[in-house]
Each structure stands twice: as structure tokens, then as C-alpha cells.
Amino acid sequence: MLDRKMLRDLRRLWSQVLAIALVMASGIAVFVMALTTMRNLEETRDAYYERYRFPDVFAHVKRAPESLVARLAAIPGVNAVAPRVVVDVNLDVPGMSEPASARLVSLPRRGAPLLNDLFLQVGRLPAPRAPDEMVAAAAFAEAHALQTGDAIGAIINGRKRTLTMVGIAQSPEFLYTIPPGTLMPDNRHFGILWLGHDALASAYDLSGAFNDVSLSVQRGVPVDDVIAAVDRLLAPYGGIGAYARKYQTSDFFLSGEIDELKLMARSIPAIFLAVAAFLLNIVVSRLIATEREQVGLLKAVGYGSTAVGLHYLKLVFVVVLVATVVGSAVGTYLAGVMTNIYGEFFDFPLLLKQVHGAVLSLAITVGVVAGLVGGVTAVWRAVQLPPAEAMRSPAPTAYYKGWFDFLGIARLLRAPGRMVIRHLTRWPFRSALTSLGIAMAVALLVSALHWLDSIEMLIEVQFERQARQDITLTFVEPLSASAMTDVAALPGVLAVEPYRAVPTMLRAGHRSRREAIIGLRAVNDLSRVLDTNLRPIVLPKQGLVLSSTLAEALAVSAGDIVSVEVLEARRTRADVRVAEVIESYVGAPAYMEIATLNALLREGPQISGANLIVDGFKIDALYDRIKTTPMIAGTALLSEAVRPLRETLAETITIMVTFYVGFASVIAFGVVYNSARISLSERARVGCDAGVGFLAR
Amino acid sequence: MADLDMGVATPTGTLPTFRTRNLTKVYRTGDVEVHALRGVDLDIGESEIVALLGPSGSGKSSLLNIIGGLDTPSDGEVFFRDLNLTTLSAAGLTRYRRDNVGFVFQFYNLIPSLTARENVELVTELAKNPMRPEEALDLVDLSNRLDHFPAQLSGGEQQRVAIARAVAKRPKVLLCDEPTGALDSETGVLVLEVIERVNRELGTTCALITHNASIAAMGDRIVRFFDGQIASDVRNASRRPPREIEW
Q: Which residues on chain B are in Cβ contact (under 8 Å) with A386?
């Protein structure tokens, strides 16, 4: 019979119960969505990595003989060694005036790659004796609508060659590709092309040699030991330091996304569940307060405390039940949508989408715990109510004069205003929590909408204040500073600034970070270094300038010493003082004055590339020259970089903002609606207010 | 509701249903101590109707709460037959109430979300040897209102449902706290007739609190309270049928 009472209570309170259930369901939906998407991504990644043999260790080298492969394979713990040739080149894509660049990756002479195997979507691999056949990465092929048989021009070691696409493929190491010098994938201007080994090796004088190697390591063997051994073997051949998976670009971004989902699963649902628990608490408390005499009656006729407590807890469990069912269903659906977005973003050739039992049972547990936290204290009060209460009608709520009376504020207000203030101060905790609940909704709304602004801010800072060049050229290898003259002489070039980029390992105490140091002139007009107030700085003659992200990662500040190990050429080491910590919204860069950096490298004045301002009217002529200049390995068109950045971000962020605005509305509605209903029921004497002459204005 | 006006019997058992000795109840609110009962000794016999009379705050409700197992005394002892209620735990008191006591309150205390029949079922579900809810409601002449919710019933009808609920489990005692307090006299008479009939036909011991001396005349005994003590305890030679009572 108590169950029938509960069902009728539910029918009476359905709107309030539904409002709470929706808040809780939102929390559970975000939880399920984030965790399921994370699991899907992890499983997809792991399956893909395993099936296509993603390596554990990566290394680049200037030129190492093939005989070294056997010695690399002999390193204890190494499973497989895959040497290859990897070079960056400029492309001449038919119908596109601006140059695109590509990373050319060699395939083994026979059979599939030992590591980083290709998932061939269309066509076939290049024939052994066909040096001009290539396989293109799916994203690049899609961006240019390439069909098998289509041709693309490539400047391979100074000679223009025409490559014919014979297949479209994807590989685990290029799930996420960003062109050098930009922030986001730009599949139109940067792509991966696979060629036969001999075709590439002979063009770059690497016959019988390799300049890139990846290794897989047996389970349980410390990767760091293998890396140290690889470094020792490659050092004489211009090795620039092997690195583990976590530093591999594609994996770094993918893992970053997965970590973000983990964070999301942890933080956002907590807000919803806390609000839901609070709402449950006030609604159930209120229900029990209005049913005080009924509770007394139930006890008087012989219902025990447990039976009465369970009766009210069942109401809580109905909320939890509705919330977990709705939340899990919506969360699972959203996880499917999110997984598809990620699948497209990372270009997975396969996508594992599943309903994870463990995630759902965790969601149920979380819901039940939130329900209990919210419900138990309220129900406990019902259990504690002495049965003799049934005999008496409740005493009026005890109100006292408070600070607003003593401060004289009360005298300024009329009776209805006093009622409101006394009501608020009578339950200060509840009033505060109600405000907090609405504040959470507003916080969610602000932080969601804030993203849109911060993206615009990021673009403005990055492209209008910091990287103001039109084009960044990257040379195949460092050139003497005199190359600046040649660059300045290119058609349409209005301004040139050189830069030097050196791969280094930075260490401070037990912390370390692999990061390139960028050498710039002390004062720059194009690629500027901004301080924490976003004002351009003059690079100091001595010392290192670190972005705040990097300084944090190394736990250093201005004045501290960082040990720098250069990962190329002479592999010099030096302790350098941190001169300044600056702001950077993108990446975690480190800067030095270019002459100081060259001195550190014990090299003469050398540059790795140049930043240009160009004349828009002469741009085609410039593009033509760039396409045919062999020393230019890469061209980043910054004006072109903004568009894909905006597009990619707009797509993901619009979806996220929509989610968040929806969820914030649910919280705000749940809190406001329940507070209003509670206040109304507590002041059921509104009729009396009206009776004594207050109009319902 | 027939056969009510059948004259008055005065059943008196040999073993008292209730026996209180030096029963004391002190309420503390903040620094204030209120002595609700000051050493009350009272026996209530089997199948008696005892009217408890007295002004507000004289201790009659406190006594009813304690013998009904809703509250515990500050001092003294209370026995239900040979069961010492003062030694019982909260769970023991719950069991005692469930098995032995029917309550009728001034404000009926029906569950508004349950129909008349369901309000009675609330009790019959727990009881060992209950009447059928329909039977109990027939006893109070409400067979035609079984599926009405409290809001659809008049005050007198609600109170009769409350009495049906109280008697449906065939309790040994029926404790009524001002059962007619919220009713007009005509409706009140109907309610008192039901109580009298239950006592007569089922032999249920009744304790009835009232402010009203004329209502007290339907009891076998009239116990007057004043300031937490028994002022007088008078045996009523001839119980007055409720129909003859007017107030």
C-alpha cells in the first residue's frame, strides 16, 4: 500500500521529480558520453596500432648504412627494426597555384612494411621497378579528389618528377598530421606519400642507407634503455635522438584528446550530480516536512522506521532510475556522434564503437551514490521523527530577527520584502546552495561560450600579433646565413626574417621535455615573441626564453638553469639560464637569439628557414619558384592556415557549445523550478497573504 | 448503522488492560521544563470506555501517547496487561502498537493520496488477524465510499474512515484523542456511536479524550485531569447512549 502511495506521490510531484531526474541524467549522459568515447578511441587506437604494427621507438638520422640494421636488431628487447627514407618535398598539384608540401616515406623493397604497415583503401602498392608510382594518404587524396592514375608533380632533390597515384592508404603513424609550422591539419597543403625504397634512396644518395628508423620493443622491456642504445648506435651517423611513442606527433595529439575526455568525464558530471543531489535533498526534505503527520501516522499504526525510510528512499531511487536510463541512453547516443567526429578528425580506417558494460555500471553506481547522498539525510530526518508527531500539528517555523533587522534594513522594506529576506536568511545554507546551483549553470554557459571567444583570441594573437608572416619557408637542411640574400631576391618578397630551429632535449632536475629551440633575431617584425601581456619582446643576448607551458612542464622560472642537449650535428650539451618566461597559446616553444643559438651549436651563422612577407600580385611567380627550388623542403602558408583552423574548430566547438548550453539550461531550469515550487509550498499561506490585501503583482 | 441503541452494558474485566504507577512526563524545551504528568496512578479495565476529561495542558494527551506506545515516560511504569511498556525498545514499541493499539486522532490523519479502502489496507497489511477493509468500512457504514479519496469525503466520513482503519486490525485497545474535536455535533454523534458500537460488539477497551463533559457521559468511567494529575476518577453508573448526547 505504501508503494501505491509512492506512485501517487510521484504523479503529484512528477514535474519536480522530472526536473531533478533531467539534471542527474545530464550528468550521467556527459559521464557516459565522455567515458564511452574515450574507451572507443582507446580501443580503436589499440586495435589499429596492434594490427598495423605501430612502433615503440622512432629515430631520425642523417645517413646510416643498412649494415647498422642488424646491430639495431641486436639491442636487447628489440622485436623488429624498420629502416626507411623519409624526406619532405614541395609538390606541384595540378590546378593549385600555391605549393603544397609532402612527406615522402619509402616502402620496403619487398612485401609490407615491417612496422607502420599500410591500410590500403584503394588500389595497390607501387611496383618494385616503378620509381614514379606512389600511394597517397587518404586525407590528402580526399582533399584533392585524387583518383588512381592521377599525377602530381614533386620536386625530388631538385628535379621535378611526376608521380602517379596507384593507391590510397592510411597508417597508424599519420592519424593526425600537421604541416610543419602550423597548428592544425591542412590536408590540402600537406600530405603523406609512400614511394618505393629505391626510387627515394637513389634520389637522395641514400642507396644502401636509411635516414629514419622505427623499432618495436618486446613487452616489459624498458623503452628508455632501448632508446639509449639506439642513440649510441646512431650518434656517429648524425642521429638526432630517438624518442618514444608519447613524443610521436600523431600519438601525442590522439593521447591528448583521450586525456581530455578523461578529464571531462571526471569534472563536468560532478557538477551535475552535486546539483542533482542537492535538489533531491531539498525536494525530499520538503516532501517529508509536508508529510510530517503522515510519517507520524505510519509509525503510530505500526510501520517501523526502516519501512518508512525505505518508502521515501524508493522515491529517490525512481529519480535515479529515470536519470540513469535516460542519461545512459543519451550518453551512449552522443558517444556514437562524438566517436564519429573523432574518427573523421583522426582519419581512422576502422572505428570500434561499442556499448561498454563497465561504463554503464559505473554510471549507475555514480547515480545511486549521488541519489543516496542527496536522499539519505532527508530520509534520515523522517526516520528520526517521533511517532507522537502525528498527534500534533507542526509548530510554525522559528524565525528570528537577523543582521538586516539590526542594520535597520528591515525598516526600509515593506512586509513582503521582509518575508523574502527572513526566508532567505532562515535557511542560509539552502539559499547559498541554490545560488551555487544557478552559478554552476552560468559557469557552464560562460565557459562554453568563452571557447568561441578564446578561439578568436587565439587566432588573433597567433596570426596578427605573433606569426605575422605570410609564408614560412623550411630548408631541407640548415644553410649559411648568406642564403637570406637569395630568399630576398625571390619574386614578390617584401620582407625576410631568418630563423634557426634545433631539436633539443631540455632537462631541469628529473623533468625533461623534447622541444625545438627557435633562434630568432633579437628584434623581429614578423615572427614575434610576446610577453605575458602579449607585447613583443627583444630577445636577450644571453639565455633561453621559455613559453609558460614549457616552463611549467620543466618546473622552472626566470633565473633557473636548464640543461640543453642538442639532438643533431655535434650533439653539444650546455647549461643555459632561463632569461624570461613568455606567453604562447600554441605549443610549448623555446626561443633564443639566433647568434647565441648558433654559438651554442658551435656553428657559424646558419639558418633553417625564413619568414616572408610577400606581394600578393606577384604571388604566383613566387609559388612557381618555390616549387622548383630544391633547397626548400616545406612551405607553410599562414594565411591559408587560418581557414582550416577555423573550420575544424568551428565544427567541434559548435557541437560542444550546443551540448553545454543545453546542459546549463537543464541545471538552471532544475534549480529554479524546484526552488520556486519549494518556496511556494512553504508559503502555502499565500492565499492568506492575498486575503489580507496583497495583490498578486 | 442499526442496533446501536441497545442499552448500556458495563463490562469490567478482572485483569486491568492498562496499569500506570507514578507515571511522570517532563518536556524540556530550551531552559523551560514542562511537567505534563506528575505521578499518575491509573488502571483501565478490560472492555471499559474511559473518558479522559480536562483542560488543555492537563496531561491527558501525554498519558494517551504513553499508553499507546507513541512516547515514553520520564519516570514511573506503565503496563499493558503483563507487558511492561517502559522496558521496550523503539522496535518493541512499534510491534506493540502494530499488534494491539488502534488510534483515532482529532484531525483524522488519513493519507490523502490513498482511498478510504487503501487507508484501511495500510493497517490490515501489517496486522495478524485483520478484518477485510470492506468489512471495517461497513462497520462505520461507509460501504458506498470505498474508493473515495479523503478530499472527496466530509469531515465526519473521514473520521469514520479513521475509526475503520483503527479497528480493522481488531486491536485490544482503541485510543481516541478528541475524535469529535473538529466536527459539528450531529456528525460527532455518528462518530461516537461507531466508537461505542466497536466497544460493545468487539469488546475493545477505549480511552477517549474530550474537552466536553457531556461527551464524557458515554464512558464507564470519567477521569478528570488537572495540572498533570488525576483530579477525580468517577464510575459512571449508567452510560449515556451517544444519540442522547448534545453539545
A: 70-71
pLDDT under 70: residue ranges of chain A = 180-183, 389-401, 404, 410, 569, 644, 683-697
Averaged pLDDT, B58-68? 93
Given 3.40.50.300, 1.10.390.10, 3.50.50.60, 3.40.190.10, which CATH number is that of B18-244? 3.40.50.300
Residue of B nearest to A4 (CA): B114
Say if the Cβ atoms of B126 and A5 lie within 8 Å.
no
| Interface predicted TM-score (ipTM) | 0.84
Contact A80, A226 (CB under 8 A): no
Choose among B90, B103, B107: nearest Cβ to A301. B103
Tell me whether residues B105 and A391 touch, CB distance under 8 A: yes
Instruction: Give the three-class secondary structure for A177.
Output: coil
Backbone angles phi, psi at A617, to 5 degrees: -75, -20
Q: Which residues of B touch A1 (CB under 8 A)?
A: 114, 118, 121-122, 125
Q: Which of A5, A7, A301 has the most B C-beta neighbours within 10 Å, making it the best mutation to test the interface with B? A: A301
- Chain A closest CA to B144's CA: distance in Å? 21
Q: Which spans in A569-637 are helix H?
A: 594-600, 619-628
From the CB of residue A587, how many other CB atoms can be counted at a distance below 10 Å? 12
Q: For residue A391, what pLDDT is reported?
A: 59
| Helix residue ranges, H only, A235-356 | 249-290, 292-300, 305-346
pLDDT tens, position by position, B53-62: 998 889 999 9
The pLDDT tens digits for A44-67 are 999 999 999 999 999 999 899 999
Beta bridge partners of residue A507, listed in sequence order: A512, A563
A chain contacts of residue B71, beta-carbon cutoff 8 Å: 386-388
Q: Is A175 exposed, middle or buried (0-12, 13-18, 19+ CB in 10 A)?
A: buried
Domain locations in chain B as residue ranges: 18-244
